[in-house]
């Protein structure tokens, strides 16, 4: 994971703060490795984030899917946190 982190940082020229788990696959060991290099980890759990106070919460962040069919109005509602359907 360190090599991936360094490669992304070299390509972007900026610090890399988050890792999106490939295909959403992760386990406790992956989370522990992620914590060594990143501030956040993103899963493929489709829901809005709400703080729950669970262990490693910042490494288990859900994602919201934005589809090709998502309208600009729907996108604005999602960003504002007032609208989300799966």
TrEMBL record:
GO terms for biological process: carbohydrate metabolic process. GO terms for cellular component: extracellular region. The keyword Signal applies. SUPFAM superfamilies: Glycoside hydrolase/deacetylase. Signal peptide: none annotated. One of its GO terms (molecular function) is hydrolase activity, acting on carbon-nitrogen (but not peptide) bonds. It is found in: Secreted. The keyword Signal applies. It comes from the Bacteria. Residues 1-86 form the NodB homology domain. Keywords: Signal. This is NodB homology domain-containing protein. It comes from Peribacillus simplex.
